[in-house]
Structures are given as C-alpha cells and as structure tokens.
Amino acid sequence: xxxxxxxxxxxTIIELLVxxxxxxxxxxxxxxxxxKARQGAMLTQSISNIRQVGTTxxxxxxxxxxxxxxxxxxxxxxxGDNGPSAFANYAAQTGNEHPQLYLGLGQAGIWYYQPPELxxxxxxxxxxxxxxxxxxxxxxxxxxxxKFYDPVYYAPKDTAVQASIESALDxxxxxxxxxx
Length: 180
Description:
The protein is mainly α. It is built from four helices and three strands, in the order ααβββαα.
C-alpha cells in the first residue's frame, strides 16, 4: 500500500499577484471619483455658507430700515461734510471716539481710517488669519450665532485658514487673548 500524503492546496504567487493587481486597479479607478465627490461636497458647503451670510445681511437690513451693514455710525454724515470733520464732531458731541473704520485688505496689509489719518497694519500671518475678517464678522455675528470664529465665514477648501482657526471655534464672541 502506498501512503498518500494529504496535500493542502493554497494560492500560488501568480494568483496572489493577479488579485493584488485587480484591487490596485479598482482603487486607482475609485480615488478620482472620491476626490470629485469631496470637491462637490465642499462646493455645496460653500454655497450654503454664502446663502447663510446673505440671509444674515437681509435680516440685518430688515432690522435697520433697509440699511446695509456699515462699519461706522449710520448717521456719521450728519456730523460733518468730510471724514476728519465728521469724526471730530462726532467725538465732540458724543464724548466718544468713533471706532476705527476698516476700509479693506490690500497688498500692504489692512487699511483703516483712524481720525485724522489713513493707517495701514501690515499683515502678520504668524498671529492668525482672523484679524482681516473683523469688519465682516463682528457686526453680523449676533445675527448668525453669536460667534466670531465660525466655519461659515471661511471657505471649506481653504485648509490653511481652517487649521489656523480650529482652536478658536469653541470660543464665544471674543477673540483669543481678549479679556472682554
């Protein structure tokens, strides 16, 4: 009698290589589709954020007799015919300095009007990105959800900015380091 050895049949190296190459091919086909789906989701989120900010602007306008958001006292023009005289008369009549009037962001930094002169603050990205968003968010934050640092103000694809504000997202209305 011959003894037959039981043979355990396994996969050959060629069969394993074929299976691995099929899996790699499928992954190669699916990754671009996943990337496109992610881009589409970010676009949808951006559109939703813009719609929410637009609704906030409409709400603000409705509450303030159809006036748009401004970054100065609504009736500042009643205090004078030009910027310097209006700011000076405002301070004289109210006893308060008018807050700085943010004009926008330029290549040299943030421009604002601090009576009696135009001032430029060079941008310092080491301290974060939020500073040049102050005029947009602070006035409208109460109409949104009461927070300055909220993802709705930032583009979903802007990962550098998203990462820089991540630690501040749980803060209430104020800024990091503010006592008030």
